[in-house]
Amino acid sequence: MPLPIRDLYTFFVVARAGAMQAAAHELGVTPGAISQRIRSIEDRYGKRLFVRSRDGVSLTASGKALWKEVKSAFAQIETSHNRHIGKDGKTILRISAAPTFAHSFLVSNLASFNEDHPGIRFNIETEDRLADLRSEPIDLAIRHGLGDYAGLRSEWLCAPELIVVGSPALLESQHPVKEPEDCLRFTLLPDETGLDWALWFEAHRVNAVAPSYGTAFKDGFLTVKAASRGQGLALINDIYVREELADGRLVQLLPGSWPTKFAYYAVALPETFDRPAVKAFVKWLCAACAVEQMHQK
Length: 297
Description:
The chain contains 10 helices and 12 strands. The protein has a 5-stranded mixed β-sheet with strand order 4-3-5-12-6, covered by helices on one side. Strands 7, 8, 9, 10 and 11 form a 5-stranded mixed β-sheet that branches. The chain has a two-stranded antiparallel ribbon with strand order 1-2. The longest helix has 24 residues, at 61-84. A hairpin with a 2-residue loop joins strand 1 and strand 2. The protein folds into 3 domains: 5-82, Winged helix-like DNA-binding domain superfamily/Winged helix DNA-binding domain (Arc Repressor Mutant, subunit A); 91-159 and 262-296, 3-Layer(aba) Sandwich (D-Maltodextrin-Binding Protein, domain 2); 161-259, 3-Layer(aba) Sandwich (D-Maltodextrin-Binding Protein, domain 2), CATH 3.40.190.10. By secondary structure, the protein is an alpha/beta fold. Helix 1 crosses helix 2 (20-27), helix 1 packs across helix 3 (31-45) and helix 1 crosses helix 4. It is 42% helix and 19% strand. The model has no long low-confidence stretch (mean pLDDT 84). Keywords: DNA-binding, Transcription, Transcription regulation. Belongs to the LysR transcriptional regulatory family.
């Protein structure tokens, strides 16, 4: 016999509200429908659950016993539901993204998604750590890595490339950069690992002896800002500097680029990818990232 979930939830709402009329308003149905559902659940269990009066309803002993058994379950279900549905009726997607990706890509492109999906809105958190998607209220994480996360599913988005950039003012003060070894005449802004420039020089077979390093920033966006202020050359993911290259705050020094080992991935619990809103967003994200990378070529 199927569980009478709708009628049980109606019982829960009526017991919480203490009045049929209030419950009808909350559930968006008529008071008659509420009475019918309560009568159905009482007939099913063979027990009277409410005492009706002019002031509303109150629970019988049987009603109190049932209320005690179902209230925590339905309260938890409501909490889970409200995580994804806002007060305006829109589906809420909670996204965790690296700060630089959120700034350089999401802020610039989400408007096009919102135009096609007006029933979805976002809460975006920016942090470098991988959120615990099993226990934290995060639906989807966007991370730069190998895409291998135990118990989670990853969807490949894009693999940005490393390019050398600098501010026009800084470049005017030095000899032109025509070869990779010419970068050694400048202060170099490292990433948080301190390995990016060393690997880049090694890949180009340059014997980089005692390079001059500037400030290392954990956030790639801060590295971009420092480079645009003339504090040194940056070896940066091309997706991070689209706007700076377009408006002339930064210049790409060498025509070649060096692909990074890692890629960006959309990461979530396997079942989360089956949710319609998540499926629509990931599909859009893959397409938008592909267009973004094509424009960088």
